[in-house]
Amino acid sequence: IQIVREVELALTEQRMVPHYQPIVSCADGQVWAFEALVRMQRSDGSVVSAAQFHEAFTDSSVSHHITTRMLDHVATDIRKWMDRGLKFGRVGLNVSASDFMRGDLESRIVGAFASRGIPLDKLVLEVTETVFLQGLEDTVATTLQRLRKKGLAVALDDFGTGYASLTHLRSLPVDIIKIDKSFIDTMLVDESSLAIVELVLNLARKLNMKVTAEGVESHRQAMCLLNMGCTTLQGYLFSKPMDREHVGGYLSAFN
Ligand code: G
Ligand code: G
Ligand code: MN
Ligand code: NA
């Protein structure tokens, strides 16, 4: 069975679920947010990560359906965690280009949160530069601008890997830059990676943006990033993405 068809089937059978990876604040060591990452559950109990079905995000109908399910899961989980008094911070939701094409992303997000009484400042929308490849700049900018006025934060994901990154920082309302894992992986052994990380941190400071370093796996990377003024860290050093049942336990062990 072809992977995109398998995802479609999993969607109708409610087998597409979020896993959550913590993002930790450098200032106080507290959990600043959890990024929601979609996973497909197979009937044999195994879990398939998004990297293995990335084709699904280029099919606009399947991608739209994934976002619908993830938005619903995320809003449900946030409501539950709020009711339990968990200090989870915010939740990051990944969206793709096709989510902006229909022109209803704002109302879908506002609807999912308002119906559960959740303020929009609990949500971080993670966008990659691929949302600009389709001539959607104006739609994307307008949608994000309107959502930001309601309290939502915008993160530019995989920063440094796309084309014309700097242009997008000027035209897009961005609160957080997420430095791609490939730079963090090599920053301690490759001087140009380190220089690029430092440059992004300085740029973000001038533009009043926060920076999340992705793929932090070692203490040395974390210390180096901390010393250069990075705002938040994400990676296996803190935790792999976990299923929703483990978030409460993670937070109590953390504090
Ligand atoms: O979790 P994993 O390493 O498999 O993620 C692979 C890629 O899939 C990541 O780049 C991530 O941005 C993307 N991704 C993960 N979850 C979602 C999601 O819910 N929606 C979208 N659009 N992309 C996602
Ligand atoms: O593109 P995006 O940034 O959304 O992708 C995030 C993905 O990267 C997550 O799904 C997660 O599986 C993976 N990831 C997060 N932290 C680490 C890490 O420390 N090491 C590795 N190898 N992968 C990571
Ligand atoms: Mn992401
Ligand atoms: Na990323």
TrEMBL record:
Residue span(s) of domain EAL: 1-255
Domain of life of the organism encoding this protein: Bacteria
Protein name (record): EAL domain-containing protein
Lineage per the UniProt record: Bacteria, Pseudomonadati, Pseudomonadota, Alphaproteobacteria, Hyphomicrobiales
Interval of the full protein contained in this chain: 467 to 721 of 739
